[in-house]
Amino acid sequence: MKSKIGITILLLLLASVVQGEEAATYKIGDVVVTEKKKEEVTFSPEKITIDVDAYQTAGSSNFIEDIIKDQPILDYRGASDLIPGGVTTRDNTLWMRGFTSYRFVTAIDGSNIQKTGGRNSYIVDYSLLPSFLFEKVEILPGSHSALYPGKSIGGVVNMVTRTPERYDTLKPIVKTSTGYKSYGTYSLTTSVQGGVEDFIYDAGYQKYATDGYLRNSAVDMESVFGRVGYILPSDGYITFTFTNTNANREIPVKNDPSLGDYDNGYPEVTTSSFYQWQNPEFDETAASYRLNYNQKTPIGLWDLNMYYSEENREREYFARNASAIVYDASWEAKWHQQGGKIQDTIEFSDSHVSTFGAELEQCFDRFDGPSYSTPDKKRTEVLSGFAQHRWTIIPGLTLTAGLRYEHVDAWIDNLSVSTGDLLITGESRWIERSWNGWLPKSFLTYELDSLAPGLRDTAVSMGISRIWRAPLNFGEFNPRQIPTGAWLEAEHGLGYDLILSRRVVNDIQLKVDYSYYEINDYIAWNWDYAEYTPSSSNPVTPGLEYKDYCINLDKVIRHGIEVQLSGHIMDDLSFYLGYAYQTFDSKGGEPAGEAELDDFAKNRVNAGLRYQLFKNTQLLLDYKYQDEQVVNKGEEVTPGVWEFNKIAIDAYHIFDLACEQNLFKNWGMFKDGVIKFYISNLFDNDYENLSGYPATDRTYGVTLSFNL
Question: What is the pTM of this model?
């Protein structure tokens, strides 16, 4: 018995000195042992890795966007911090390096999340991704991995689900957290993990609701999750996962003092395209099914990921026709996606590792409006093959080189929804376009430790890769139901990243990434300047209709810098600091280039302090700065009629403060009880978010979490 206790204590002591983990001390009788604490964020030249369970923020973290939006490479553009996933019809809530979801990849277990976007640019709804589903998030800057699609120009956000593991007992692990915040904001998340011998199971439930800060901005949503799996020999596994979400989200409306229905109980809003009498909202149901297989074999580590998902979004609102008669203008868009990815990783030696694979993506959509509808139709299909090899040339010098091939098919609707005529004369109802491209990738890292003592824990890296992207999304090849994809070519060019990584002192880590992009045939909306849009006053040569409604810009140059610095100033005081700078320049002189490329802030800062005030008490302070910018906002106010606004957004500084208290380690049947009190927008600054709405004022919240 004594030998077993001694071995256990020795293992715990060894675990406490594992690199990248802090230690917390506990006393067992007369013996002091150490429990390791995971790092929240770790850096490598190729990627940033966030541990979802360990990550701390001065607020709540119900959804995956709450965790990743603090990274300087990502730009949060939500309509309100109380509305997960956003409700605007054009864009997603996260951009990467100044790019929308058109030009960066969001993936689950390496498989791209992709839909056509229906009648908009809404590719990824982050409210469908509760944080409890995932073990970690990997953020890869730039387009230097052959394992991901060509749209990864800005980079990749890969969310990794929890790896199945065997359990020593039949008793499941139950985790629960709940919270309440100003404006009637409530959240509840509970999950169950367990197993029987080699069989494992997981289940989860999440509820989120808020009355909203703005007029007509309430949210009510629920998500359920389930997974079953079997652990195979050689620690492989096979799992089947199901998720379902139901969400009701109101759309903020005008609250203008000049209008007769002004309500002084809400902030003033003039930039919304809707009025209160229209009762606008977005309701959504979504479901996804995933099969994962992972197994070591004599010919490598095989990984298979197959999925099917569907989303049904109903935009409900009223409108007035030319006779001032109010009618129901609601419409419904349905998407479903399916695909799979298979890859084999072969480790020939410590110096040579190769990965080979193939991927298939298919996207379908259907639209039903008050006056017309489109059939359920396959709109895009992408077939890809890839190979990548990691070679340690000499100790400290590593090259990762790869090649990816993509073939893209798109089916473009050429039918006028108002007249039933073909929009481009001489073309069929469905115009099929195909694009294909080869994408060589490379990433070289040189660790400088051996050159001089002063260069210990220092590395420089360079990524040079070809950029290639076909117009895969509805907002590009069929915006406002116009068949622009008939005229568009694929984007192509080169992307460069130059990265310096260094341990400055103790555990303080520095990473500086300079990126340069040269993108030819950059796709941009051009409807404000189009000359080939037919009308009674603008006859167009048959067959050339809408030729310049959406165009390829000649060339776009982007420069960017991201700086990340984090670590401990003292044993009880840690910090993080992130800075991002970016600028775009259209070299072709097209007016659309100026409008397309000014929709971002050049400078952004994210920073935070974590102070261990007492043994079980921690203070958290987060800071965000964003300089001024101009945004282009579009909303469909009646079917087929869009309203566009160019909105100037002032610079702003925001502070969030929290106090986190560990209540107990073990208390009867309860374990790991933690309560957090927090204040968002501590100094009650007035500022606008990326939709031009007044951002939420000072709010107060509390969260409580515990395990069983």
Answer: 0.88
